[in-house]
Amino acid sequence: MSTRLNKGGRLIDRSTAQEFSFNGKRMRGFGGDTLASALLANDQVLVGRSFKYHRPRGIVAAGPEEPNALVNLGRGARFEPNQRVTTTELFAGLEAESQNHWPSLEFDVGVINNTLSRFLPGGFYYKTFMWPRAAWKHLFEPIIRASAGLGKAPKERDADRYEQVYAFCDVLIVGGGIAGLQAALVAGASGARVTVLEQTAHWGGRAPVDGDMIEGTPADAWIAATVAALSAMPNVTMRARCMAAGVYDHGYVLAEEKVADHTPGDGRPKHRLWRYRAGRIITATGAIERPLSFAGNDIPGVMLAASVRDYVVNFAVSPGDRTVVVTNNDDAYRTAIALKEAGLAVPCIVDARTQVTGALPERARALGIRVETGRGIAKVKGGKRVTGVALCVQAGEGAVLEEIACDAVAMSGGWSPVVHLWSHCGGKLTWDRQHAHFRPDAARPPTNQDGAAMVYPVGNANGAMTAAQALADAANGAAAAVAALGFKAEAVAASAAEVVEAAMEPVWIMPQGAGVKLKAKMWLDYQNDVKVSDVQLAAREGYESVEHTKRYTTLGMATDQGKLSNINGLAILADALNEEIPRVGTTTFRPPYAPVTLGALAGESRGDIFQPLRRTPMHGWHEAEQAYFEPVGLWRRPYCYPRAGENHEQAVHREVLNTRNALGLLDASTLGKIIVKGPDAGRFLDMLYTGVMSSLPVGKCRYGLMCNEQGFLSDDGVVARIDEDTWLCHTTSGGADRIHAWMEDWLQCEWWDWQVYTANVTEQLAQVAVVGPNARKVLEKLGGMDVSKEAMPFMTWADGTLGGFPVRVYRISFSGELSYEIAVPASMGAAFWAALHKAGAEFGAMPYGTEALHIMRAEKGFIMIGDETDGTIIPQDLNLGWAISKKKADYLGKRGQERTYLASPDRWKLAGFETLDGSVVPDGSYIVAPGTNANGQGNTQGRVTSTYYSPTLKKGIAMGLVRGGLDRIGDVVEFNTVTGGTVKAKVVDPVFYDKDGEKPNV
Amino acid sequence: MLILECPYCGVKAEETELSPGYEAHLKRFGPGSSDEDFEAYMFARKNPKGVHFERWRHVYGCGKWFLAARDTNTLEVFGTYPAQSSEPPAELQAKIKAKRPDWKGYK
Fold first, then answer.
1. pTM of the entire structure?
2. 3-state secondary structure of A536
3. B38, B55, B64 ranked by CB distance to A895: nearest
4. Confidence bin at A52 (pLDDT 50/70/90)
5. Cβ neighbours of B74 in A, within 8 Å
6. Which among A403, A856, A869, A912 is least buried, having the fewest CB atoms inside 10 angstroms?
């Protein structure tokens, strides 16, 4: 059984017992434990079920590479799925649940998949997606959905908060092991600003566990002294519990600090996302041990050898009483020695190599441990935990030589440098034959904006595998990194006792000649249940690219991103393809290195500050009137102002009728307002608009269209000539910033010799549309300027005062009624709005919202950018040819509109529609046409673009595009409906109301 | 997350301060131009693995458009210069040629 040893444990504090629970069972651990070490201390070896076959799974590793031991952590508003127990620090009251089991961890129905595994081979998803379609929908998908899936999604709003910080340094060192600390000493001494990040709560990495001696003392002593020295340097920042997740362009690094994971609810942010900009990045990220591929290597109790050592030395936890060590290298002997020295039994070390003569094996032998050379494991015995192993000849096919009873297996297939951060931004790898691993190729680094290397890998992460090599490599790397920034450094490294290790021998399958039956039980990717046999099948089926094989088999696609499985998988693929491993290559390393919480990525951008909101000066009034708001870009505009007992539709209809019959007031402040000024302003506007603006007399207004260079309609609005060299351009509410940027683009980048100045004054002015037959009466009551028909005809503007407010009045109309749009300084907007309501009360003044505005403009057949246009519509499609100058040699979009296909008579053009039964055409409807297209879909000949119930006309009205446009007037067409069937409508003139324009002409 | 120096205000601006404007030094073809010229102006964009000239706007800074020469593969930035330039400055072209002897020029 796995248990707590009664002495030792360099990271735990036995005086602080901590209660926690797993699947409701109460357990005890100590301060300093990880959840993994605490579970093992309580003999909880079985911790989860695998994704596809629901096989029992236990803890394999001791760090972020752990593939199996994922749990649901916490509950309610602090519930988190897929938390790795190996990186979760224990705290009192922690609650964890295993995942992916039903009905219970001990007895799982889904394990039936295990016996059906020959029906779920590699590529299963591809094959069933392809054929037969019905089987996927009715058979496979329901079964897979029921039995698959990792953690549950949280149901409550996250109780915690997260924050983000920008930070800058000359050198960012990732990894606080001995290489990272050594690099920090060298870089710090140079005077550079240095930051060191360590993903765990502890400095020094695994050197103390490995028993390294540095400067003649145990590694722990050197680490403590070095951390103290670094902490005293004012130019060095040390940050623990902070994982660098990704390296991006030009020295940008994202790192996630787990501030309060281990102290939930203490008021601090749970995580902090650091956004570093570093001059140079040093990756001292260490290496990850590789599993060996033997049958049953996923049975709980089979663990990585170095991780077994971590549990014994750091946490005083023994994963088993009797541990068999299986290896292809010397390092794993350290585990056997550590176990033996802790008083535990090591029945046998199974070494695949035939010659084993190094210093560590000799020490193991001297301790009386049996070493079997040239041997492998034929299979692991056991179900929910290991009960023994069967030995075989590594060079053979798996004939069992003997069985050894044990309750744990410590495996080591060698070490892979953690090259993720090096690779994120384009660093290339080279294959190291001696260690059979990929390591950074110093000749092909990721580069910075200055064209020089951006990342300097050091220590194990650079293939320097012993303590002495790692320290020397780190000193050199740090000196080079700071020298590139102009700092002077001396590459002086601490000395470490050299332990000579004999060469490892790559072992990709154990035993070498294993048959199909064994290979179908050799797991590569524990989390996604990918076996040696799956990768070999993929190769046989023609998946030669490692990227294709990855997606076909799902190897390395789980939340651990193949930290344990990828190298073994591609070695198997290379073997199956009869290629060299470096020729097959690796899949792409992408950020994040390990999962980052979405909360940290969102930071404070949630709730009220998810995005900035734009409010008009009258917003408070609208809120007080309980307006129903709708988003328009970042603006919030009243959609309607429902009164007691009214629904939105009734409110909208009342607002329309009141505006048409009495007086409506609209907050039009969101309308874009751009000043264009200068000697060349007229010439510039003539290029921008399809019509002519230079000829507009001072004091007059003109409607204009803007197109992009393809000729498609992009914005519209009324332009007013303010003085000889000044125009004011109104844009759509959503378009102000875009159109202002568009103007600046042309002025700065194309016509930079033109003397034109633009200013977006949208927010400087509040604007109110005073609309309806009583509009003039209320303005006359306020008094201060002449707003008569004679003094202010339609499409003119004037400055003056109204009720004491300085105003600019435009006589323009988007409703078809007598209408004045009145601008006042934004600071007076609320007061002016209130004054209009007060003065207008006797004339029946009511506010109206955007929906009433939309209905009234549709009744008049006015287009709306975004309704009648979608980026593929030219003005001619909307019968707006009258707004296009025929005389101008050029305007933006003119050449685009000359394209022949835009002149095709088959184009759908704007028309009005009235249903025969008076109903409203459904939004999004298409006009059906006879026959079907090449895909068997019904043909279409048009679509609806705006459709409303007109309270004025008491029937449904619509605008839309139809082949033939206005030539089709009188035809009856059919619109499809959501519920099936069609609705018949007559093609009509899109001006439904006041066709002769008499209403505003008073 | 590139860093580009705005040639107007001198700020070494992070990409979040900038908005991209794609390829620089395009020649506009207006009314009367051939279909081929118009197509090239509207749609045909270089997509080199290597030296590329781009338009950027310091939109959350001084608001000015500028041009940048950089290597799309190594992310090396050769230089930035004002948008009011008909061609890249001669010294910038010489610098790029020295670093990338195979470079065929900006056109």
1. 0.92
2. helix
3. B38
4. confident
5. 426, 447, 451
6. A403
